[in-house]
Structure formats: C-alpha cells, structure tokens
Amino acid sequence: MAQIFPEWVNKVPGRIALSGGILVIFVIAGIWYYGSPEYTDVGYQPVQPVPYSHKLHAGDLGIDCRYCHTGVEVSAVAMVPPTQTCMNCHTLIKTDSPKLAPVRESWEKGTPVRWVRIHKVPDYAYFDHSAHLRVGVGCESCHGNIAAMEEVELAKPLSMGWCLDCHRNPDAHLRPLDEVTAMGWTPPANQAERAAAIKAQFNIKPPVTCSGCHR
Ligand code: HEC
Ligand code: HEC
Ligand code: HEC
Ligand code: HEC
Ligand code: HEC
Fold it and tell me: How confident is the model at residue 1 (pLDDT cuts 50, 70, 90)?
C-alpha cells in the first residue's frame, strides 16, 4: 500500500501529548508559585499598625494568651482582641505614648485597629482551635514561642503535610490541659505513657482522611 504520509508523522501525536504534558506542568507550577500567598511562607512578618510586643505583654508581664485571644478554647477562631482590651490597661498606663496613638484614635473614633493577618489556611481547609486546645495541644506547637517574639512571625508552614505529620503522630504535642498556653514546655521523659493516657482519656483520633479537613 502506498504511503500517503511520511514516516515521522506517526510520532506527531506523541510529541503533542508530550508538550501538552509539559504545558500542564508549567500551568500547575505557575499557579503554585504565583497563587501561593505570602503568608504561607515561614518567617512572614508584616509590619503592624501598632508596635505591639508579645515579648513585653505575654513574656515579661506574663499576661495569659487567653486574656486577649478569648475565642481560642471555645471556637474555631482565636480572635485578635478589640481595642477595649488594650484600653483596660492603657487608659492608665503610657497614656501619652506616641506608639499607642493609633490605639487611642481607634478608641475615640470607634474604628478597629487594622492588624495585619499572619496565619491563614485557605477556605477549603477546615481548622478549629477549640478542638486542639481541648485535648492539650499547646499554642507553641503551632505558633512557636510567641512570648519571645517582639513581633509575631509565621513559625510553621501551615501546609497540609505539616497538619498531617502531627495528626499521624501527635504524641509529643499532648500536654496537661493547664499547660496549653505555657511557652518553653518540653515533653518529660515519660511522655509516651502520658500521651497514651491522654489519648485514651479524650478518645483522640485526629482526622487523616480527606473529608476530615476538606468538608
Ligand atoms: C495583651 C493582649 C495579647 C496577649 C496577652 C497575647 N496576644 Fe497574641 N496578639 C495580640 C494582638 C493585638 C495581635 C495582633 C497583632 C500582632 O500580630 O502582633 C496578636 C497576634 C497573635 C498571633 C498572630 C495572629 C495572626 O494574625 O495570625 C498569634 C499566633 C498570637 N497572637 C498568639 C498569642 C499567644 C500564643 C499568646 C500567649 C503566649 C498571646 N498571643 C498573647 C494580643 C495579645
Ligand atoms: C494588663 C495590662 C495591659 C494590657 C491589657 C495591654 N498592655 Fe500594653 N503595656 C502594658 C504595660 C505595663 C506596658 C509597659 C509600660 C512600661 O514600659 O513601663 C505596656 C506597653 C505597651 C506599649 C509600649 C508603649 C511605649 O511607649 O513604650 C505598646 C505599644 C502597647 N503596650 C500596646 C498595647 C496594645 C496594642 C494592647 C492591646 C492589644 C495592649 N498594649 C494591652 C500593659 C498592658
Ligand atoms: C494545632 C495548631 C494550632 C494551635 C494549637 C493553636 N493555633 Fe492558632 N492558628 C493555627 C492555624 C492553622 C491558624 C490559621 C487559622 C485559619 O486561617 O482559620 C491559627 C490562627 C491563629 C490566630 C489568628 C486568627 C484567629 O484564629 O483568630 C491567632 C490569634 C491564634 N491562632 C492564636 C492562638 C493561641 C493564643 C493559641 C493557644 C491558646 C493557638 N493559636 C493555638 C494553628 C494553631
Ligand atoms: C501539633 C499537632 C497538630 C497539628 C499541627 C494540627 N493538628 Fe489538627 N488535631 C490534632 C489532634 C491531637 C486532634 C484530635 C482531637 C480529637 O480527636 O479530639 C486534631 C483534630 C483536628 C480536627 C478534628 C476536629 C473536629 O472538630 O473533629 C481537624 C479538622 C483538624 N485537626 C484540622 C487541622 C488542620 C487543618 C491542621 C493544619 C492547618 C491541623 N489540624 C494541625 C493535632 C494537630
Ligand atoms: C489534617 C488536615 C488535612 C487532611 C486530612 C487533608 N488535607 Fe488537603 N489540605 C489541608 C490544608 C491545611 C491545605 C492547605 C495547604 C496550604 O495552604 O499550603 C490542604 C490543601 C489541599 C489541596 C490543595 C493543593 C495544595 O497543595 O495547595 C488539595 C488538592 C488537597 N489538600 C487534597 C487533599 C486530599 C486528596 C486529601 C486526602 C487524601 C487531603 N487533602 C487531606 C489539610 C488537610
């Protein structure tokens, strides 16, 4: 039979498929790179409207995290405190500090201070603070030693792999409930036994199936 097309034409569909495959990889890489928001990068530390220091307030003054982050044990979100919380003290302390000018302005005008959000998981992933606090996972496991930070920075990647690492083996992160906000906590020598007891007590089963976090 006469050949209508030269031999090399047979390879064309393969080439198209191959370059198509490369294109798909580039598109995915592009979305990954450009679509990935800044705040998922460890070390992300935006400039805040007020030079508020966790090291001073939570570290040196020893104010408990829950005094300001009131939602953390009872709801999905920890919540950044309203101006009222600052003014509980700052109507009396450092009342004419220029550093506190935006806080006083917020107080007088009734407009919130525009804190810049640092930690955020995408809307398609479900996260709940209270579920973690209830079983003794401390703030420090996920946020690092906040009480040592002058300005908060992102200490962990908040990626899916990071969530799953702990969900598969949370033992090192299960603290006594009265230690959840403590900073610098290290697991004691008998942590394996204690973790086993805490897991049994609360029937802990961190989700590792897709629908656990993608609801
Ligand atoms: C006196 C009030 C106060 C106390 C006490 C306090 N915080 Fe905060 N926290 C704030 C304010 C205000 C912000 C927002 C500004 C900033 O990021 O620094 C914040 C921000 C944060 C953020 C970042 C939120 C984001 O945007 O992602 C984390 C995490 C955090 N705090 C954890 C803690 C932990 C852990 C403790 C206890 C060791 C603590 N905080 C104690 C007031 C407080
Ligand atoms: C429990 C009391 C208390 C609360 C609540 C509190 N502060 Fe303070 N704050 C202090 C004290 C005490 C100082 C240190 C004063 C000193 O250096 O003598 C301080 C200092 C500061 C300073 C430094 C002022 C300067 O001129 O050096 C800033 C800024 C500040 N606080 C912001 C805030 C903000 C914002 C909030 C609310 C999220 C807040 N504080 C809540 C007690 C508090
Ligand atoms: C198991 C990990 C984990 C623990 C434990 C944890 N956090 Fe978070 N935190 C996160 C993640 C993830 C986000 C982002 C949540 C989102 O985008 O919905 C976040 C966000 C925040 C925020 C800003 C947004 C919000 O929810 O209001 C604050 C403030 C905060 N955490 C404070 C705390 C404090 C205080 C503690 C301890 C009392 C704590 N966190 C314990 C993982 C954790
Ligand atoms: C340091 C350990 C640790 C990290 C990090 C962690 N978790 Fe968890 N998570 C747990 C433990 C322990 C439980 C089990 C609670 C239980 O079974 O009562 C849990 C439970 C959950 C639950 C089930 C809550 C419910 O109401 O059923 C969800 C959803 C969840 N985690 C989402 C996440 C996501 C999303 C991340 C990452 C952004 C994350 N977790 C990071 C330890 C962790
Ligand atoms: C413990 C919670 C958790 C479980 C379980 C989980 N995911 Fe995720 N997943 C996340 C979080 C958090 C993100 C967002 C990560 C980020 O922003 O980098 C995510 C992101 C993703 C993405 C977006 C792609 C990317 O890398 O940004 C896909 C797709 C995905 N998950 C699929 C799955 C599938 C399929 C499963 C089941 C095999 C699964 N997830 C199980 C928490 C979880």
Answer: low
